Amino acid sequence: MAVFRKLTLAAVVALAGGCVSQDPRFFACNRWVDRNMNQRIEPNEFEGRGSFMFRSSEDVTFVAHIVQPPGTRIGWQLRAPDGTIRGEGEGVQQEQDTVYRKAYSGRELIRTGGSGLWTVDWFVNGTLVGSSRAQVVR
């Protein structure tokens, strides 16, 4: 007798070879908008959160929510669909609980590396801890 389990959309896409992150700390969206003007990032302030596919006319923001002690090294690498690194950087965690954002226009991404799956890999003290992904199409 076969056993069937209910799968989430992310699990189905992952099984089918897609790349939807199941870790809610790492995601892509269109942008962050400080709706209440308190200069603090809050979960309901990300426009387009939950999207995976973005058009060239849209903004694409890669997001990571990292909880680490102040002084921890936080790094990132932007990878084009062909796997080449198109940007990278490193900084130092200032507060225990921090949300990092890397924002681009879809046109900029396609112009520099083509359409397809773009990824920002996030690192803590040089160790990969998660990835934010977006499929960018013309």
Describe the 3D structure.
The chain is 11% helix and 46% strand. The chain has 138 residues and is mainly β. The chain has a 5-stranded mixed β-sheet with strand order 4-10-9-6-7, covered by helices on one side. A 3-stranded antiparallel β-sheet has the order 1-5-8. A two-stranded antiparallel sheet has the order 2-3. The longest helix has 8 residues, at 106-113.
Q: How is the topology of this model organized?
A:
Elements: H1 9-15, E1 26-29, E2 31-32, E3 46-47, E4 53-55, E5 59-67, E6 73-79, E7 85-92, E8 97-105, H2 106-113, E9 116-124, E10 127-137
Parallel strand pairs: 4-10
Antiparallel strand pairs: 1-5, 2-3, 5-8, 6-7, 6-9, 9-10
Number of strands: 10
Q: Unreliable stretches, pLDDT < 50, 5 or more residues? A: 1-20
Structural class: mainly beta
Radius of gyration: 16 Å
Determine the number of helices (DSSP H or I, runs of at least 4 residues). 2
Rough outline: globular
Strand order of the largest sheet: 4-10-9-6-7
Q: Main attributes?
A:
138 residues, mainly beta, five-stranded mixed β-sheet, 11% helix, globular, disordered N terminus
What would a concise description of this structure say?
With 138 residues, the chain is mainly beta. It is 11% helix and 46% strand.
